[in-house]
Amino acid sequence: MRPKVLHLIDDSHFGGIQSAIQRLSASRLKNDFEFQIQRTNLKERSFGNYQTDILCVHHALSWQSLPKILSLKLRHFRTPLLYQEHHYCDGFMKHQVSNQKRFLLMLKLSYCLMNKVIAVSDHQAQWIIQNNLVNTKKLIMLGQSSNLTPLVSLPVKKAQSNYVFGAYGRLHKQKGFDMLIEAIKLIPHANITLKIVGSGELEYELRKLASPLTNIHFVGFCDDISAFLNECDAIIIPSRWEPFGLIFQEALAAGKPILHSGVDGLLEQSKIIHPQYKEGLFKQSAESIANALLHCIKNPPKILKPEQRNQLLAKWEDTLNQWKSLFRDFINKKNNS
């Protein structure tokens, strides 16, 4: 019988968290583990009682969730409790947190209830260590990835007279799509089109912001990112904060030039191209983004060579092997206790 791994999630919107868990659950690891996904809105109710071998929590932590996490720990005291930190990083704290000491205390108390805290990037892991949020023995860095096979096979697209920029992710303040739309407004005579994939709580506001413009298109949910990327000449990531940002890796695999804000895990991923790579960077302002868009049309950032794109395929297998090793270690400890 396969050991059970239960993923607890509160995010049902299109975005990296949900898709990452679904990819993991559908991967070859399903032959070794029985994966289940349970959505729980902690604003409405607490966690339930679960029959599982491993619990992996993906909720955004808060003071409100802390007693519910504690209850979960006490009711499943012999079950390993893992936490993957998708949400918080240095950029989030700078933009969203007014009382940083109180915020960091909440994280420290929450993390101490976990058997393991999983950072999604080296930058995030260093932020956790620098703020002394968890014992380093309980911290592991396990980056995100996906099966990039459909993307590395895409042909390199030759830009036409109308340059198509693509952006995708949850329509949330974090992603900076408002700044991107404002940037398009600043260059009305540029022969460009922007396609935005995703849904979220800011969809109405963003559509309203873009309503005077005819060259911005909201695609909505897209279950074929490969086809979407194939339509784009370049990808732009205007995030205000980004613990990891899988879109960067996907765009690299697809052979697309990338413009990005360089925050948190994004700059880390740009080093895949070159350790000192800094092309395509812009500041978090509409003016800087507009200049980057215009510069990209004439001088697009470098893309990976075909052999480099193929090398990215190993990242998915490495990620799966790390998850398998992590789960196996806890299962073996549990069986031997």
Which terms summarize this structure?
14 helices; 15% strand; 11 strands; Rossmann fold; 337 residues; alpha/beta; six-stranded parallel beta sheet
Explain the layout of strands and helices.
Elements: E1 4-9, H1 16-26, E2 34-39, E3 54-57, H2 66-75, E4 81-85, H3 90-96, H4 100-111, E5 116-119, H5 122-130, E6 139-141, H6 149-152, E7 163-168, H7 177-186, E8 192-197, H8 203-210, E9 216-220, H9 225-231, E10 234-237, H10 246-253, E11 258-260, H11 265-270, H12 286-298, H13 306-311, H14 313-336
Parallel strand pairs: 1-2, 1-3, 3-4, 4-5, 5-6, 7-8, 7-10, 8-9, 10-11
Helix pairs in contact: 7-12
**Counted beta strands:** 11
Compute the separation of the termini in Å: 19 Å
Instruction: Spell out the CATH superfamily of the largest domain.
Output: Glycogen Phosphorylase B
Strand order of the largest sheet: 2-1-3-4-5-6
> Briefly, what CATH class of the largest domain?
Alpha Beta
N to C succession of SSEs: EHEEHEHHEHEHEHEHEHEHEHHHH
By secondary-structure content and strand pairing, the structural class works out as alpha/beta
Query: What composes the largest sheet?
Result: 6 strands, parallel
Instruction: Tell me what portion of residues adopts beta-strand conformation.
Output: 15-25%
- Report the total helices: 14
CATH fold name of the largest domain, please?
Answer: Rossmann fold
Shape: globular
CATH architecture of the largest domain: 3-Layer(aba) Sandwich
Number of domains: 2
- Binned, the helix content reads 40-55%
Radius of gyration (Å): 21 Å
The low-confidence runs, each spanning 5 or more residues with pLDDT under 50, are none
